[in-house]
Amino acid sequence: MSYKYFKRDISWLSFNHRVLLEAKDESLPVYERIKFLSIYSSNLEEFYKIRVSGYHSSILKSISRDESEEEALQTLLEINNEVTEQEKEYYRIFNDMILPELEKNNIILYQTDEVEPFHKAFVEKYFNEEVFPFLQPMIIQKDDIHSFIQDDRIYQTISLLKRKKKKNNTEKLRYTYAIMKIPHTKLPRFVELPTFDGKYYIMFIDDVIKANLQSVFPGYEIVDCYSMKISRDADFSLENEDQKDIAERILKKVRKRKIGAVTRFQYDKDMPDYFLKYLCETYEIEEEELLKGGRYLNLAELMKLPNPLGDKLKQKLPQPLRVPELENNNSILNVLRKQDILLHFPYQSFDYLLRFLMQAAFDPKVLEIKVTQYRVAENSAVINSLISAAKNGKKVTVFVELKARFDEENNYLSSELMQQAGIKIIYSLPGLKVHAKLAYVRKRSNDAKEPIKGYAYLGTGNFNEKTARVYSDKGLLTSNKELIQEIDEVFRVLEGKPHIRDFKHLLVAQFNMVAEINRMIEREIENVNNGSEGRIVLKMNSLEDKGMINALYRASEAGVKIDLIIRGICCLVPNQSYSRNIRVIRIVDAYLEHARVWYFYNNGQENVYLTSADWMERNLHRRIEAAFPIYSEKLKREIIDILLIQLQDNTSAAWLNEKLENVFKRDDNPPVRAQQAIYKYLKETTGL
After folding, report:
1. For position 62, what pLDDT does the model report?
2. Is 8 helix (H, G, I), strand (E, B) or coil?
3. Are 228 and 266 in contact (CB under 8 A)?
4. What is the 3-state secondary structure (H, E, C) of 272-320?
5. Which residues of the chain have pLDDT under 50?
6. How far is CA 678 from the centre of its chain?
7. What pLDDT is recorded for position 148?
8. Which strand ranges, in their side-by-side order, compose the sheet holding 190-196?
9. pLDDT reported for residue 108
């Protein structure tokens, strides 16, 4: 039988549509819904910079993909058609749902440059004093040198007519065209106007400029003014680069992102054909790069929309819970000598991980600390802890992944800071990204039988205290000897030292991960064939690897019951004869679902793994990833209970069907919103 698969990027668009649907949820406060509009736009911008650029390259035959040139063009057309439909829905939600909801709360967001009489003086004064000095209008002509259009910036394009003393009606109109970038670094996107009659007024800076265009172009009649923006190719590959000077070469490529090839030309859908044609000819825009937008572009900036009523219109998130075992003991390392600790972010405080690192930095018996760095916060508390450790005489090694997309420069700058403090920095491995989230501490012990004791943190998410407030992740603090030994071996791999390849506890990509996953799936199939129950639950961000999907299809055909909680890309097609035992749900809510959890029933001897790895070809075959087992029965039960809560969600969860549609899970059971239920479960379990 021939198996089917969803196209990766069409599947991703289905996920982003699910994000958009949160903006329609009238049970959410209006600024929470606006947040999801912003996230949708931000996601789409990155998608065009990274993923769509590959299709353009394939069409130009400059790179090789799995798809042929014709297939790449067909997929690109599918992408643009789907995005066009989603954007229509986006603006319907914005105009027909969000704006009226704001008005109910006496917040008026102008949708025109026709200013109310009571605001005219303020807007004109604001424009003259705050805006006009930063404007740089330029006349554009097809056959002349014209200004370079930066990516991800809003431009206003204006058509003009020269004013004449006497008009000759028989003379053909000859337009002059100008382009002007909105000075985003100098001005806020939204301007708060004086309140009037108990109402709060906000205006796009776009409209402030449009309302005063005549003073920018004296001697001309303003005919039309429309917004446009360009997305440029921001992808680059260093997969085959060797170690020498890798940091310098990555930085060079990062800085060239701003001048990459065009992947999307977005424009106001009301722009007349004559105007659009002129711009396309002038800037050499191809038809497949054109995408209609609304009056206002770059709406990722809605995240900055002023909120004059504050918390009343926002979703209030609960305070992170405290963990009793760590609250009742001053030393986290002492706690770990007796038991493993499982942390659930952001339900529980990220401070415990920071305390773990800081205590290691100041403990006189700690000899060495090793950490992997993929994405860290700016002014990172994690980096500060490691610098403190180095200054306190500890040997500190940090493996810095410079190829973490859009964080390359931040990672380079933080590594420079660490090097100045005496920390040993090891940069990216040739041909591989290091995505595993590991921290390892070596400490002298008073035990003569075990003079050196090891402690470790293994996580599903980054060492980033800022994203930990909104990303749902899990982390294990442990001193388990078997895990510690194998974590040490992973670091030996990263350091290029001699190492074993026989991992028995950790599942490590490039070594045993794929083989062990297949073995566990086959074991569930065998158990079903022997008359027992077969059960798999997998929670991930993305499922794309065809080898893994085929293994799940075979398990489904054998009768293994499989539940998939996939937030993003899912190339597995449900509701087929070979996937009849597979159910796929998406959960989108206040927190970004980021933890990866693998559960295998194993005839009642349940296996649970946590990991940073998705089942994508890149994670399984081109990265260093680590999946770690949970051996504590108490902690294992905790994870399974949380998985069951997520599977019961009938509020934020949506089924993914065979048409890539998000079908909200609605049933007659009492309403369950998983993220709220998980917080309640952990609060009742921990008591703090």
Report:
1. 46
2. helix
3. yes
4. CHHHHHHHHHHHCCCHHHEEEECCCCCHHHHHHCCCCCHHHHCCCCCCC
5. 62-64, 257
6. 22
7. 78
8. 107-109, 199-204, 190-196
9. 97
Task: List Cβ<8 Å contacts ≥24 apart for 28-32.
Answer: 28/315, 29/312, 29/313, 29/314, 29/315, 30/98, 30/101, 30/102, 30/105, 30/313, 31/305, 31/307, 31/313, 31/314, 31/315, 32/314, 32/315, 32/590
CA dihedral 250, 251, 252, 256 (to 10 degrees): 100
* Torsion angle (degrees, nearest 10) of CA 69, 71, 73, 78: -170
Backbone phi and psi for residue 275, each to the nearest 5 degrees, phi listed first:
-75, -45
Read off the tokens for 238. Answer: 């260093």
Which two structure tokens, joined as six digits, stand for 342? 């499982």
Helix (H, G, I), strand (E, B) or coil at 83: helix
The H or E element that residue 207 is part of is: helix 205-210
Catalytic site positions: 435
Q: Kindly provide the residue ranges of all beta strands, DSSP E only, lying in 366-436, ordered along the sequence.
A: 366-373, 395-400, 424-426, 433-434
Specify the residue for token string 């051996």.
Answer: 631
What confidence tens digit (pLDDT) does each residue in 298-355 have? 999 999 999 999 999 999 999 999 999 999 888 999 999 999 999 999 999 999 999 9
Cβ-based neighbour number of residue 64 at 10 Å: 8
CA angle (499 as vertex; 496, 500 as ends), nearest 5: 150
**Strand, coil or helix: what is 628?**
strand
Distance between first and last Cα of the chain: 53
Phi-psi region of 637 (alpha: psi -120 to 50; beta: other; left: phi over 0): alpha
Ordered DSSP codes for 426-491:
E---TT-EE--EEEEEEEE-S-TT-SEEEEEEEESS-S-TTGGGTEEEEEEEE--HHHHHHHHHHH
Distance CA 375, CA 378 (A): 10
The pair of three-digit structure tokens given for residue 603, joined into one six-digit string: 């005839």
At 328 the three-state DSSP class reads coil
Residue 412: per-residue pLDDT? 76
- Cβ contacts of residue 215 below 8 Å, gap of 6+? 127, 128, 132
CB-based contact 415:400 (threshold 8 Å): yes
Residue 436 has a pLDDT of: 92
Please return the burial class of 348, using the count of CB atoms within 10 Å of its CB with bins 0-12, 13-18 and 19+: buried
Question: 461: closest CA among 439, 485, 442?
Answer: 439
Predicted local distance difference test score (pLDDT) of residue 496:
84
Run of H or E residues at 537: strand 535-540
Joined together, the tokens standing for residue 111 give 């949708």
Q: What is the DSSP letter of 186?
A: T
Separation CA 265–CA 228 (nearest Å): 7
**CB contact set of 498 (below 8 Å; sequence gap of 6+):** 492
What pLDDT, in 10s, does the model give residues 617-640?
999 998 899 999 999 999 999 999
pTM of the shown model: 0.91
Residue 637, pLDDT score: 97
Q: How far apart are CA 570 and CA 440, in angstroms?
A: 33
pLDDT at 232: 82
Nearest Cα to Cα of residue 225 among 263, 275, 187: 275
For 244-300, write each residue's pLDDT tens digit.
Answer: 565 555 555 555 545 567 888 999 999 999 899 998 988 888 888 899 999 999 999
